[in-house]
Amino acid sequence: xxxxxxxxxxxxxxCLSVLTGTSCSTATMLQFSxxxxxxxxxxxxxxRLSGVxxxxxxxxxxxxxxxxxxxxxxxxxxxxxxxxxxxxxAEIVAGAxxxxxxxxxxxADQPGSASDTDIVVTGTRIxxxxxxxxxxxxxxxxxxxxxxxxxxADYIQTLPQNYGGGSNEGNYLSNPHTADNRAFGSSIDLRGxxxxxxxxxxxxxxPAAGGALGAFTDISLIPTSAIERIEILSDGxxxxxxxxxxxxxxxxxxxNRFDGFETHLYQGVAGGALHQIQASQAFGKRWGSGGLFLxxxxxxxxxxxxxxxxxxxxxxxxxxxxxxxxxxxxxxxITAANDAIFGIPAGQDGRSLTARELLPGQTxxxxxxxTIDILPRQTTHSVYAAIDQKLTDNLSFYARGLYTHxxxxxxxxxxxxxxxxxxxxxxxxxxxxxxxxxxxVDYDFxxxxxxxxxxxxxxxxxxxxxxKGSWRGWSLDLNTSYGRQREREIETNAxxxxxxxxxxxxxxxxxxxxxxxxxxxNNPATLDFxxxxxxxxxxxSVWSSALRIDGSLFDVPAGxxxxxxxxxxxxxxxxxxxxxxxxxxxxDVYDLIQQPGTPGHRTVNAIYGELSIPLLNASAGRFPGKxxxxxxxxxxxYSDVGRTIxxxxxxxxxxxxxxKVRGSWGTSFRAPSFAxxxxxxxxxxxxxPLADPQSPTGISNALLLLxxxxxxxxxxxxxxxxxxxxxxxxxxxxxxxATYFQISYRDRIASLLEDLSQFLTQRNIFGALIQTPxxxxxxxxxxxxxxxxxxxVASADINYLINVETQNLSxxxxxxxxxxxxxxxxxxxxxxxxxLNGTRFIAIDQRxxxxxxASDVADTILNPMRLRFRGxxxxxxxxxxxxxxxxxxxxxxxxxxxxxxxxxAWTTFDAQVGYRFADASPLKGARIALSATNLTxxxxxxAAYVLPGITFGYDPSAASAIGRQLSVDLxxxx
Length: 974
Known about the structure:
- By secondary structure, the chain is mainly beta.
């Protein structure tokens, strides 16, 4: 096997080989001082300091950076640190270390490595192994640094497997499914199945949930300076991790082993005076039996105002769309008793306005988008700490903690805009038609009391501690973790409709509210009186403990059968609600409203097992090659929704060294969130008229059941993948991978209240939720204490009973292909790199209910685009590097408008030029980089984004409003 490796290295004519004739000795403790540098140089330094032979092809290390290794370490430990996060592993062959590609996770399989370097990789519980058959992507620090993105949240948005329509700061209130993100966090949404269907882990542990509904993990809490790598398993994994791992698992790995100091400074600017500053300091100290790592990061970005972007508008006429500006302005518009419209003239205070001066037929409009922010101001402080200590030869202790405080504020849209009824007793009352009846005025108070302001802060921390042990080939991990996220928001300068009505009924001209001018005639005390405030709060916590063991069972002809077993206990809590004085006659009185289903808590107990079974292992890479299988299973017991069992199997067949085929099959589930399991005793029954084409009058009356189903079940999914990896020996440096995936998702939890108007007009879709009630059902509903009858519908006139409770409803089947291509080659005396990463959806078939027809929603707005990819070209030589990226999102249909419209594809380019100073320089270990994202300042393609109360001219789930952003960052290790 070694002669083949040697021949391949010679064939590249770019072999980095340090030959000393010294065998690999792993027991001796040596002093190492290897800085953060390109991997080729780091391996040379390692070989020089250790006296150990290292053989590696130049195309293997091309474009990769090493975090270095410093302090008293064994040879094995030092090499493990040099290779950590690079996606490479070393094997002892004929007395020398040979560094190979192989699955990135095999970096864990270092001979003789100690507890912290003996890593369990995402997708398996067995130390030092890859998840057999499952697709895994590893993103190291170098990839994040060369992308020009300042934060983890920014970088995740570039991944084709991630859907940008989840809970992210740019999507707040632009999507009905992200309105819970009032603290402007950022989420990951693999496959577009919802943020709650992607499990996000911090170093293998569950952090507390974020958002007002506890529906996602906030990745904006993570300081970039503390990240070692990101592992993304794009496959169902409930058999390993339990709930939420339907679309996949994203595991953020932290830098727990580092020696020295690292300072990082970043500054970025974009059009519209958008400015971002980031500064971080990391410190690490390694000693013979352990180490300490600390990192602090400060990040500040100012707001992006709406008037700085032309597409942030409700007037879409310049693109051929409608003018959807709202009739709420100052001065406003009067609607008379006969529904006639009259504009209030500008330039007067309304104190002496007469009917003759009104503007018949004119509606005064305002563009609400131009006065609010696209992105909020955010300031974040993050601290991460880790310590590990070897207690005996076979036992070590570790502890880790992350704390983040973030504050934010923004100008936002009003909670609601509504017409105000002015009684005839108002001292400024104007009667346009002389009937002496009350009039309605559409009016916006922003010019008088200021725009709605949303501000607040969150505090989040995640801690874990445990013991790791090893004995006769078996590993043990006993740990506990605790996380809490606390969010507090306050919205000011809202308008209380209750107190507006009181002020309009005031007959005193000195204090009465005047809606008939530009607002200059209103008493400041009156304006203070009509202001209302909303205070939101939510707190989520998670406490867990786990016992995990794994090791070798026995040998078979093809290798060693290995087993992992574990038991876990977890307790989740969640509290959410808000207080407001909006509905009170006094600004000093607040109502407290608790989020349905909270405060809530649940306990979860689980056991699991996983087997790794080698089936074939032909020598010298000959057919039939190497075949491995894995079998895993997990059982979870929930205190509120019962028991669930999920299996998974995987196969990986390396037919010859050039070709590997793999596949996986398994089931997954998602337990209902606390916000989805409200108390059914608080359910409401409404009597409402609905449009009905089958009725002679065009209207039918229905009883609507609103609230929460009493028998909520977990969502369930079956997923399978099939993939191939090609590494042709006749094209050294080339890797091609493709993975087909299919996820069949059922019992999805939803409420169709927003589709209520279509229930009787589209019975083929919603028919399963519509019943014809009998007289007993109607009588019981009318006698229910929670019955509401706003339109006074008589019981004899009820035609239908419609269930719009939050319940297990819909089904989805997602099919597609992930593809990657990577090639490295010697170029112009340096190393050239080209790679492509993309996702092509075949179909996203969705059923509103289990019995309704399926429709393919891929390539439609509010759903993933059918094709996304990111390409990369790079070149590096002697400390200099240059990287260019292309980001492509394919065209799709905007179904928010009728008829639907085509939205064009969006292509942007990113670039970075960097230089790392040589060892002989006074700035040894420093790297400076200039970056540009969206280099050509490409505007988002036009899309009429029209939802109730929301209108603008682009789709925030598919494009960014920031435009070109230029940045400079400096990293110094000392």
